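$ run holo --ligand "cytidine-5'-monophosphate" --emit tokens
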Amino acid sequence: MTITLLQHKRIVLAVTGSIAVYKAVDLASKLTQAGAVVDVIMTESAQKFVTPLTFQSVTGRSVYTDLWQTDHAGGLPTHIAHVGLGEGADLLAVIPATAHTIAKLAAGMSDDLLTVTALAARCPLIFAPAMDGGMYQHAATQHNLRTLVERGAILIEPETGRFASGLIGQGRLPETPTLIGAIRRALARQGALAGQKVVVTAGGTREAIDPVRFVSNHSSGKQGYAIAQAALDAGAEVSLISTIQSLPVPIGATLIPVNSAQEMLNAVLTESAQADILIMAAAVADFRPETIADQKIKKTDETRGLTLNLTRNPDILQTVKQGREESGFPRIVVGFAAESENLVANAQSKLARKGLDFLVGNDISASDAGFAVDTNRVILLSKAGEPETLPLMSKTEVGEYLIDRIARYTAIDR
Ligand code: C5P
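-- output --
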């Protein structure tokens, strides 16, 4: 799967001697598949676990092991490997990082290709400790970690669990999706929305009938989650207010789980009070049962039917609009319109009525767009410009397109 943020990014992946090296092979493979250019440095002890050929095979590039090696293949900006590796790199990732390498990096030592490259490189450093729990907790290791973090390095916290030794503790290297999530956050630091707070809502609200039943709709939350990921990749701080429990939360987002429209309203008001951008991708139920039964509603032999009285839910965007007139927050508001007829006309009037900066219009009558599927076909209306009809795109692409449009709009707005 390609990842836009990783396209043509040059990542120097430095691997050290831990059994967790096998996970770094998967990481190198997934980063390469996602579009990154991965140059691997292996320490001597890393080569006791896997060979350079393993990394060469998954990255399709030379692997560097020797401080005295020169690069004649021309894959680096200069033939002096320890300078060429860092030169022009977007990120130096030491994964897995042993206690020994962490100590050397903290002390500024330079006795192998990895540590010399780390001194020469000007790009950010991210590192993921992997070691026995006792070693990780040791005051010397903790001191070294702090030194690196205070110097601006990004720490990927090790996980707690079972070690190869059979002991349990904190020191395990996280799995690939977590590592890639942390790498994305590191690369996004200079993104177009860096320093901005974005609130995204996702999923259909669930309106309780009794303690076990609810009324809801077909919204899968996929478009909202894709927008949250795109905002993260643009460097934003993201709160994701969601009714969905089954989708992986994009790494770096703060999840605020909700069920009903009323709960979503409260969460949106709290989260967007200081936010730059609110994106209401959620399918909020217009109606909810008038009363919620305290106990499960039971059928009897005589029960022939059940009538539910529904009452109107608050309109979250209208409530936000009123507050925004006084506070000025959120600075930008984006709504969605799911329509089965007259998409453009209905969306245009919704944009004005709900006081939106952008509105994403969705034709839910098309089978390849809208609810549950991975693709979407939308129109994008803006307060400031002409409507745009976008072709069939993945929800990821729609999310990235929308975030790019918003980022350009905020740049003008400031
Ligand atoms: O009016 P309609 O439901 O078509 O508007 C859709 C947009 O309004 C979406 O962005 C949705 O999240 C938002 N909405 C809301 N509160 C409601 C219903 C919808 O904020 N009660």
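-- notes --
Residues 261, 280, 282, 284, 286, 313, 315-317, 335-337, 350 surround cytidine-5'-monophosphate (CB under 6 Å).
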